[in-house]
Design a protein that fits this description.
The protein is α/β, with parallel strands linked by helices. The chain has two domains: 9-197 and 382-397, 3-Layer(aba) Sandwich (Rossmann fold), CATH 3.40.50; 214-379, Rossmann fold, CATH 3.40.50. It contains 16 helices and 15 strands. The chain has an eight-stranded mixed sheet with strand order 10-9-8-11-12-15-14-13, sandwiched between helices. Strands 3-2-1-4-5-6-7 form a seven-stranded parallel sheet, with helices on both faces. β2, α2 and β3 (54-56) form a beta-alpha-beta unit. α1 (19-28) packs across α16, α9 packs across α14 and α12 crosses α15. The longest helix is centred in the N-terminal third of the chain and has 20 residues, at 59-78. The radius of gyration is 21 Å and the shape is globular. The two termini are 35 Å apart.
């Protein structure tokens, strides 16, 4: 990839997310100016990011861990804005001299303001749906279960809304997220859709060792991820000899979401990334029933391992599957793609039907697995993700930055 001018990007991120993968790839493309994060350099080295490109501000990471340890989610949420604001302000003074600043939402405002005052183009990364839509969906879902959602601090919500207005472009990972912004009145020409990537060297197909129809999920076992809908769908499907393997950390609601003990439903607990490929290799299908999700990266991992994907339209999985071919409606509410099936969110009966269809047709299941692996190697690398971002950076820096009305 060649450009007429040099693009240099400073990434501002509180934590890791997919920013470290982007930073590594941009560094390899000679387009990374700095990575400003609250992770120590001992962590960024694991992603192959040169120390000389990293500005580490670790105090807020320590404060976040302390808040969780002392008071759990409730205290951590109450202190979220103060901790994030501390990082945001320090980060805005460490931007360096890039041609573009790419900052993660909820801590971006000071960096966006600092960059704009110097005529530097700005990108806001929003990996979930529009903040107001995210809050609405989660508030309603918790209420439907008789649970109380720990509200996002109002100061965080207000800052996010200001960031949406400040940034020159908002980068989003899926159609679901883009639609939520368009519904909120954000012009489509300010939105750039670019789905996440996957480490194709680590995630690859493996030979399954048994004939069990095993459904696997990876992620936190909470309401947002729709664990209650997934387990309900699995039970409704009632596939003979099947298993559901739930991989991920439990939340305070996990026991209630999963319900009664069921020997077919197995909890594996949190698993390090490097152990996931072997678990994917034991599965028949990857399932993601999220209520609200920007684009779960585990979906791309599973596809790269040759697993068909069954997901809701609120997971970002729809975008991944569309890259492998056009979908078709095979039943009301059920759309089949070459590498998987998409159903509406909050519809466990349709999710169950999708699982039944795959279990009943081993030949179709095997063909979907082949399509999944082919799709991953065609379009889902982190290098492709970074290059698409870089093309947008280049377009944005070719003309003077235009002000966006606040």
């Amino acid at each position: 990839m060649r450009f007429d001018r040099k693009v240099s990007c400073t990434i501002v991120v509180p934590g890791r997310w997919h920013a470290f993968d982007l930073a590594r790839e941009l560094s390899g493309l000679d387009a990374l100016h700095r990575l400003v994060t609250n992770y120590p350099k001992s962590r960024t080295r694991r992603w192959g990011i040169p120390d000389s490109k990293v500005v580490s501000l670790p105090l807020t990471l320590l404060l976040t861990k302390l808040a969780w340890r002392m008071g759990g989610e409730s205290l951590a949420m109450r202190q979220q804005f103060r901790i994030n604001d501390l990082f945001a302000r320090k980060a805005s003074r460490a931007l360096g001299t890039p041609t573009i600043v790419h900052a993660w939402s909820s801590t971006a405002e000071p960096s966006l303001l600092a960059a704009r005052s110097r005529g530097i183009a700005t990108v806001l990364e929003r990996s979930s749906s529009h903040m107001l839509e995210q809050c609405r969906l989660l508030r309603e879902e918790f209420a439907s279960l008789g649970l109380t959602w720990v509200e996002t601090p109002s100061a965080t919500v207000a800052r996010e809304i200001r960031e949406y207005q400040l940034a020159d472009r908002i980068f989003v990972p899926s159609l679901f997220v883009r639609r939520s912004f368009e519904a909120a009145g954000v012009p489509s020409d300010r939105l750039f859709l670019n789905g996440f990537g996957v480490d194709l060297g680590r995630f690859k197909p493996a030979e399954k060792g048994d004939g069990v129809f095993r459904v696997i999920y990876a992620g936190s076992l909470g309401v947002r991820k729709g664990i209650h809908h997934l387990t309900a769908a699995f039970r409704m499907a009632d596939i003979a000899g099947s298993q559901l393997l739930l991989v991920g950390g439990a939340t305070g609601e996990t026991g209630r979401l999963i319900g009664r003990a069921d020997p077919r439903i197995r909890l594996r607990g949190h698993v390090p990334q490097h152990e996931l490929p072997s678990l994917y290799g034991e599965a028949s299908v990857f399932a993601m029933a999220s209520v609200e999700e920007g684009q779960a990266m585990v979906q791309a991992q599973a596809l790269a391992c040759g697993l068909p994907l069954v997901c809701t339209s609120n997971t970002g999985g729809e975008d991944l599957l569309e890259q492998g071919g056009v979908g078709r409606e095979i039943a009301p509410g059920i759309r089949e793609f070459p590498a998987g099936i998409v159903v509406p969110a909050r519809a466990p009966e349709l999710f169950a039907e999708a699982l039944r269809r795959l279990a009943a047709d081993p030949r179709r299941l095997a063909q979907m697995g082949k399509s999944a692996a082919a799709l991953a190697h065609k379009d889902l690398s982190w290098r492709r993700y970074a290059e698409a971002n870089l093309e947008q950076y280049d377009l944005m820096t070719q003309a003077p930055t235009k002000a966006v009305a606040r």
